[in-house]
Design brief:
Blueprint (H helix, E strand, L loop, with lengths): L1 H23 L5 E5 L5 E2 L5 E6 L9 E5 L11 E3 L2 E5 L6 E10 L5 E10 L42 H27 L1
Parallel strand pairs: 2-8
Antiparallel strand pairs: 1-3, 3-6, 4-7, 5-6, 7-8
Helix pairs in contact: 1-2
Length: 188
């Protein structure tokens, strides 16, 4: 009889933990990227597109593409639903780094950096001229999307501590209820 009660308590405990852990682990994650992580493309694409599992908040979404020379190679990101798009400038062959930072519906920030490689560049070629050199003003700098001075790092996508506390309290409540029920039946 006590074995049957213990089995019922164990099943109820596992079900309670499963229900509580499901929503806690539901961070917004990257579903697909174009170009894909660690892929090789012929030339740098016109844009980088990241599609996530949930809609994005434009105010808390940043995507920065860095070219092979270490300089920013993208314009500010545009957000439409679950998709973030960063238009790229023409660039050289080499490794491009994509860093994104988003905030999920649960308020948990998620960031990651990955790369793709272009085997050839798509820089415009200059036509040979015989005219006198033209001097121009320095080119404006590309704005970096995201907080100033922020170093993107991959955030911990684990379950927050509060979820473990709530889960433990649920387990204790189920066990306590099972023990009370067992005592009541044995005293009857």
């Amino acid at each position: 009889m006590w074995l049957r009660r213990a089995a019922v308590i164990a099943v109820a405990t596992l079900a309670g933990v499963g229900v509580l852990a499901g929503p806690a682990a539901a961070h917004n994650t990257l579903k697909v990227s174009n170009p894909a992580a660690n892929s090789t493309v012929a030339t740098p694409p016109e844009s980088v597109t990241l599609t996530f599992m949930e809609d994005l908040d434009a105010a808390s979404t940043s995507v920065v593409v860095t070219g092979p020379d270490g300089a920013p190679a993208s314009d500010p990101v545009t957000v439409a639903g679950p998709t973030a798009t960063a238009k790229l400038k023409p660039g050289a062959a080499g490794k491009y780094s994509i860093t994104y930072k988003i905030t999920g519906e649960d308020g948990h920030p998620v960031s990651e950096t990955f790369a793709f490689t272009a085997t050839a560049g798509n820089l415009p070629t200059a036509a040979p001229t015989t005219a006198a050199p033209v001097t121009s003003a320095p080119a404006p700098t590309t704005p970096v999307v995201g907080p100033a001075g922020a170093t993107p790092e991959k955030e911990d996508d684990g379950i927050p501590v509060w979820a473990y506390v709530v889960g433990a309290l649920a387990i204790l409540a189920v066990l306590g209820g099972g023990l009370a029920l067992g005592r009541r039946r044995s005293s009857s």
